[in-house]
Design brief:
Layout: E1 4-12, E2 16-21, E3 24-30, H1 32-38, E4 45-55, E5 58-64, H2 67-76, H3 84-93, H4 96-105, H5 108-111, H6 119-129
Parallel strand pairs: 3-5
Antiparallel strand pairs: 1-2, 1-4, 2-3, 4-5
Helix pairs in contact: 2-3
């Protein structure tokens, strides 16, 4: 597994960062908080903690400004019906600390407002993760670079 990629940020969009490390440009899928952390760092060094998803038809990297956000993303993907893009949408709609609080307090209504996440799946997220989510340590305001 690739723990993180540290290199020069060569391209940035709200959903994708290209980080050049050792002459290779890594296309890394990001959520909006990572985008916000990286804005203005083009052509400067940055670090993104990554989750690599390898499937039959695709190899994808998802990047996060902190280990806590990555852990929350990985935890969300353990829930049946939540894939990488849905987990990314959840982390784009709410900050990592808000997601943790929503799940811990059982607020399925707020969670179901995320595009592509229905009330049943939101409830499943809460049931599956309620006891686990508070164990995730979030580094509030951790820089991406």
């Amino acid at each position: 597994m690739i723990d993180y990629i540290k290199g020069i940020l060569s391209e940035l969009t709200p959903t994708l960062a290209v980080v050049e490390a050792a002459g290779v440009g890594y296309a890394i899928n990001i959520a909006l908080p990572a985008y916000s952390a990286l804005v203005g760092k083009e052509q400067k060094e940055c670090r993104l903690y990554t989750t690599e998803i390898i499937r039959e038809d695709t190899h994808d990297l998802f990047g996060f400004p902190s280990k806590g956000e990555r852990a929350l993303f990985d935890m969300l993907m353990t829930v049946s019906g939540i894939g990488a893009n849905t987990a990314r949408m959840i982390l784009s709609a709410f900050s990592a600390s808000e997601v943790r609080q929503i799940i811990a307090t059982g607020n399925a209504k707020a969670l179901s407002q995320v595009k592509g996440l229905g009330p049943k799946t939101a409830q499943r997220v809460i049931v599956d993760l309620k006891d686990k989510v508070l164990k995730v340590e979030l580094e509030d305001g951790a820089p991406a670079g």
